[in-house]
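Field notebook, page 175. I keep forgetting to write these up properly, so this time I am using the form the group agreed on. The chain and the ligand, cytidine-5'-triphosphate, are recorded exactly as supplied. Prediction of the bound pose follows.
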Amino acid sequence: MLDLGLSLLFAIPIMVSNAVPAILGDGFPIDAYKNFFDRKRILGDHKTFQGLITGILSGFFSGVIVWIIVGDFMLNQYSYIGFHFPFWIGALMGWGCNFGDLFGSFVKRRFNLESGSSFPVFDQMGYILFGLLWSWIAFRVLPWVFWLTLLIIAPLIHITANRLGYLLKIKDVPW
Ligand code: CTP
Ligand code: MG
């Protein structure tokens, strides 16, 4: 139960930096309207600089808050595997999650999927996977329970959050 709680706290910056671009993202697209070799958009209109930057910043700030509240506890709990939990970890997760998001759009465009269309499985788990992956790449250690719980729980949270966002009219589509 403790592991479960800690993995959820650990993932807060990933979830925040995944949600924030949908609310604050707008403006100039990262691919500058350019096409890839296949003459389809590289990323599409929905991936903007404003979304990327607000995503990483919100990941950073929410990470600092999590670090202040449970940083020491987290380190103690997993010190036996040499776990790292620096105050800036949220920026890393924010980058990881948004990198994953851009990667997902890149793949979608290659498959001719319109911006905003649903991309099953990746939509629900991609950001968590990439957020975790980047913190793993940086530190080479991540408690295995984090992978387990987050990859199972994330899709459930994601689906609920998006339904809610849609009902509250923050999101245009329920996925
Ligand atoms: N968004 C943004 N900049 C980003 C990421 C997201 O502005 N780097 C905003 C866009 O307004 C986008 C919304 O967040 O429409 C939802 O993001 P997401 O679901 O990741 O994108 P999709 O609309 O599904 O577009 P795509 O098909 O390219 O994945
Ligand atoms: Mg989408």
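OBSERVATIONS:
- The pocket of cytidine-5'-triphosphate (ligand 1) is lined by residues 21-22, 25-26, 44, 46-48, 51-52, 101, 104-105, 108, 115-117 (CB under 6 Å).
- Residues 17 and 55 are 4 Å apart (CA to CA).
FOLLOW-UP: compare against the apo run.
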